[in-house]
Structures are given as structure tokens and as C-alpha cells.
Task: inverse folding
């Protein structure tokens, strides 16, 4: 199962709206076939592993990270009939599929056909790999990660807006791996105006489409020469409100840039509405790399599932330096947002603090 989980991880960021899945076939103590789901529309992990095993699959054990599918509402054939035809006699499954079209049905179909089935081996690691997929199929919205690169005292830029580079090369490389594993990357218009980022992936992606770049721009201030508009390496979605000019919307549309207009209570894009729209698009994982105000609004509206704080061993200081989280401060410590399952990891000279709200 450990090998199947490692294979599944290779599909992170390239399989949406499908989940990342790995499969390994073992006969008489030897691996005779292995594979993973590379991209949506491509063969599933079980099919890849069974094709490689061929006749050696008869009497073998299939280790798979997710319950095999049995429904027809998709582009590829269901996996349960393929498994039954292969001669597999035992199947070990890490996690059940949370999709209501599958949940428990794959396991039941295998058992009814006489195949021995075990569920739960490697469940913890499988659960982490499936978090984005599980969140989308059960809630209709993507799993949201908020990433911050800050000094030890929580500053993300100087008073003049300088922020490159607070963290070191190892942390920046880790962020590119995060982008590679995400379906979409989001920033606010302030970040675009200050840093003009490309928001592309320079390392870690193994294939499939590039992550969707999303810019929150309520008033459509984005320059037409911005890199997220001129760099064709990845698609871009501009999220705006009725405050944005019709002329600017038309100019962006003529350049092939999609513009999404959403309601804006208090002049800001409503996160609930945005996340619901992204879920309908098949976006399972969203990485927020916003500035202080975008970070604050996402946290305030409970849109964030996981936070990743990359902290450099430096202190910037100053009331006028930009803090990681903007907006008004709560009046009492009891109103602070508490994280669960917090871990601390060294990345080069920097520290990564990770935690979850759910």
C-alpha cells in the first residue's frame, strides 16, 4: 500500500476533477503490475496496473488507494468489472470513495463476486491525498489552502511594498510544488499591481493542465500588460463586480481572458459564491497567495481549510510594514482563530507552520 500511495501522490494537481489514485498488484510476494491515474479522461490506476500485470493478475492481490468505481457517469469504463475479469482474488483498499455515486458500492460489488476485500490499510495517508476531492464532492467547493511567506514577526512586505524575497530558495521551491499540486492559484489585484507575478509553475508538475490563475479585482484595475494576462502558459480568470467598467471587461474578453462577475457585499467578492462557482468548474484545490486584505477576507468568511505559514528567521518590525493578515483586529484573544493538527517543519533556514481549521 505504501507504494500505491506514493504512486497516487504523483497525480496531485493533474487529475481533477478526479481524485489521485495509485494501484499495485502483488502475486506470490512480487509486484507484477503498478500504475496511477495521470489525468482526467485517462485510464484509472487499476486499469493501468492490470494492463501491466496481464495474466499474472490471476490469483493476485490488488492494493488500491481508493475504492474502485462502479458507475457509468464518466468518460472511462468502471473499474469493478475490469477487476472481476482479471482474476484478482483479493483487494486491499485504503479509503472508501466519498462520491455518493460510488460510496460503498464498489466494495459491495467486489464482495458479492467472491473477492476478499479489506478496507482501511493506509487510510491516514489516503485521507490526506483525497482531501481536495472529498471536499468538492461532499460540499461542492474546493479545498482551500492559504499560503503566507512572512518574517518571524508576521510581516509580508516593507512599508514601501518590497517583499522579494522574504523566504529562501528552499521555501520558494516548496511553494512551486504547492502550485503544481493545485488546480487553481488566487491572488488579489494588490499583489498584481505591486509584484506583477506570473503565477506559473516552474517545478514539480508532472503533466496535465497548468493551474488556473485567479485574480480578485472588484474594480477591474488590472493592467492589460500584466503577466497573468500576457503569459499564455496558464489560463486566467478575473473575478470582478459591477464596479468594474464594461469597457475593461470587453477589452479583457477580446483578449481571450474570462471575466466572472459576482455579487460584492461591502464591496468585496463573496467567497461562498466564488468557491461554489469554482467547485462547479471541477476545481478541487485552491491555493491562496493573496496579500493582507485577501488573506483577511478569506479567513473572516471561513473560506480557508488549511494554512501554511513559511516563516523566515528575520524580524522586520515597524507599525507601517505590511502584516500577513489585514482587516480589523478582534477585540479579545478569545476571538482568535485556533488551528488544529499543527505541525512545524524546517525548510532550509525557514520554518513551515501548518494547521487546519476543519
Result:
Amino acid at each position: 500500500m505504501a507504494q500505491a500511495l506514493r504512486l497516487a501522490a504523483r497525480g496531485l494537481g493533474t487529475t481533477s476533477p478526479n481524485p489521485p489514485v495509485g494501484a499495485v498488484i502483488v502475486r506470490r510476494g512480487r509486484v507484477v503490475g503498478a500504475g496511477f491515474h495521470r489525468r482526467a479522461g485517462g485510464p484509472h490506476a487499476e486499469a493501468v496496473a492490470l494492463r501491466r500485470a496481464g495474466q499474472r493478475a490471476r490469483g493476485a492481490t490488488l492494493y488500491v488507494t481508493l475504492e474502485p468505481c462502479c458507475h457509468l457517469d464518466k468518460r472511462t469504463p468502471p473499474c469493478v468489472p475490469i477487476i472481476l475479469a482479471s482474476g484478482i482474488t483479493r483487494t486491499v483498499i485504503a479509503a472508501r470513495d466519498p462520491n455518493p455515486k460510488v460510496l460503498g458500492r464498489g466494495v459491495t460489488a467486489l464482495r458479492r463476486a467472491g473477492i476478499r476485500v479489506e478496507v482501511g490499510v493506509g487510510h491516514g495517508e489516503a485521507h490526506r491525498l483525497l482531501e481536495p476531492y472529498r471536499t468538492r464532492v461532499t460540499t461542492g467547493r474546493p479545498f482551500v489552502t492559504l499560503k503566507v511567506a512572512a518574517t518571524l514577526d508576521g510581516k509580508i512586505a516593507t512599508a514601501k511594498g518590497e517583499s522579494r524575497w522574504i523566504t529562501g530558495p528552499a521555501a520558494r521551491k516548496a511553494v512551486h510544488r504547492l502550485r503544481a499540486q493545485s488546480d487553481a492559484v488566487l491572488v488579489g489585484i494588490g499583489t498584481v499591481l505591486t509584484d506583477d507575478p506570473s503565477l506559473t509553475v516552474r517545478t514539480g508538475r508532472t503533466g496535465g493542465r497548468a493551474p488556473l490563475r485567479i485574480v480578485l479585482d472588484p474594480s477591474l484595475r488590472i493592467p492589460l500588460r500584466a503577466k497573468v494576462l500576457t503569459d499564455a502558459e496558464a489560463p486566467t480568470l478575473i473575478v470582478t463586480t459591477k464596479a468594474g467598467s464594461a469597457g475593461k471587461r470587453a477589452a479583457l474578453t477580446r483578449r481571450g481572458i474570462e471575466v466572472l462577475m459576482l455579487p460584492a457585499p461591502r464591496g468585496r467578492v463573496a467567497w461562498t459564491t466564488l468557491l461554489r462557482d469554482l467547485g462547479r468548474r471541477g476545481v478541487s484545490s485552491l491555493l491562496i497567495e493573496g496579500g493582507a486584505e485577501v488573506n483577511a477576507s478569506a479567513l473572516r468568511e471561513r473560506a480557508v481549510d488549511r494554512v501554511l505559514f513559511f516563516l523566515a528567521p528575520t524580524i522586520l518590525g515597524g507599525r507601517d510594514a505590511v502584516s500577513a493578515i489585514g482587516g480589523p483586529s478582534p477585540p479579545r484573544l478569545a476571538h482568535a482563530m485556533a488551528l488544529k493538527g499543527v505541525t512545524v517543519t524546517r525548510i532550509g533556514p525557514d520554518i513551515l507552520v501548518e494547521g487546519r481549521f476543519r
